[in-house]
Amino acid sequence: MRIYKKLAVTLTMLGMLGVAGTAYAAVYQTPADIAASVTGKSITDVNQERASGKTYGTIAKEAGKLEEFQAQVLEQKKAILNQRVTDGQLTQQQADQIYAGIKSNQALCNGTGNCAGLMGGQGMGRGAGNRMGSGMGMGCRLGLYP
């Protein structure tokens, strides 16, 4: 009888972890997921276009959905920043600064991965080695995914 109780508890815990993992995955979407949802294309089609050299922004722009894509990405990033504050990885002030930077840079984003008016279209990123170039941070590239 004890084995059945242990088995039931173990299966219940595994089930709860599976549901929690699914809920976590449902909350956070990749740029490919967002581009696919706003354009009505499949993830496979979006990934094939991305592999051919198009940015997710370009894919959305070509479908006439750049603003919707940007709004959903901004919402996604805000959720990630809020989670990082909750987890103690960032202070609220840091999260607010990052969010403000993303929002202001999105206004300069033309959907090509380059930001109009920032260093000849490249932007200042926090890539490997904190160097100038495209990457997560001040650039138009849409990073900040866990």
General description of the model:
The chain is mainly alpha-helical and 146 residues long. The chain has a domain at 29-121. The chain has 6 helices and no strands. It has helices at 2-27, 31-39, 43-51, 56-62, 66-86, 92-106. α2 packs across α3. The radius of gyration is 19 Å and the shape is flat. The termini are far apart. The model is unreliable at 19-26 and 117-146 (pLDDT under 50).
Structure keywords:
single chain, 146 residues, mainly alpha, 0% strand, disordered C terminus, DUF2680, signal, DUF2680 domain-containing protein
Short description:
Keywords: Signal. The chain is an all-alpha fold and 146 residues long. Helices cover 60% and strands 0% of the residues.
